[in-house]
Amino acid sequence: MITFHGLLKMHIINPKDVKLVRHGNAELDILDSFKNKRKYFEDYQSFQSLDKFKKAKHIATFAPGRGTTAIFLGLYDINNSLSNTDWTKKLHGIIDKNGFPDNWHVNDGTWYDLEFNPIFKDYSERLIIDWGKSTVSWVQNKDKSILQIKGANSIGEFISYDEIQISYEELQKLSKDTITNETWINALSAVNGIYLIKDTKKGALYVGSAYGDNGIYGRWMNYAKNGHGGNVELKKLNPNNFEFSILEIATKTASADEVIHRESRWKEKLGTRDFGLNLN
Asked: In whole angstroms, what is the distance from residue 9 CA to residue 28 CA?
């Protein structure tokens, strides 16, 4: 079995020089911040308690996964470090700009100059390790078993319908790799329902419905092909700004009339006929 230390050695990196860091989600959603607010996340992890990464040349950053697992985000090189007695006005400004706790200014701490190392970028969000029990320290040097390296087009494991918020890029990955994303394909194919497309740049909303044999998955694959699924208003927008979510699910036995009725109610609730992208 390949371990994380073994992977480091394969890339000529001494495991003794690497601290493994599994951030918790108490202060922010680690995976979401890494994916969607990278600069904010990197500022966040650069401020640590005094000498937290002492003697390390690199940190391997992980987000919490299910149970005791951890999702690899990236390898960061430590170029420099400063204790807070030597922090510049710029570093204190980063704390204020990001809204980090005020006590970070005065508590004993270290700021680390961290630089993302592209050597492991292909493993980012794909490599899963077993971190161990919740009582295990969130920063350590201990070797870890690699449980899985997901396919390149993986968008992670399906969790629940109400948590779905996927980008157009992720939707295209679903269409390209049905094996890696099997849990998503099965879940979206199993239900009909009402969905929402949001233009994340302009705030425009579109409500749609799915009631075919392949459920929501079948309908969404039409958008994956061309970005608009035949809708006149969506054709005017850049699909790379689209976010797909589900408002309500319906069983596969629900009639088309039932689903369309519920779709109409959502259009009324969200005002997408008057203020959004629905023409009828």
From this structure: 32
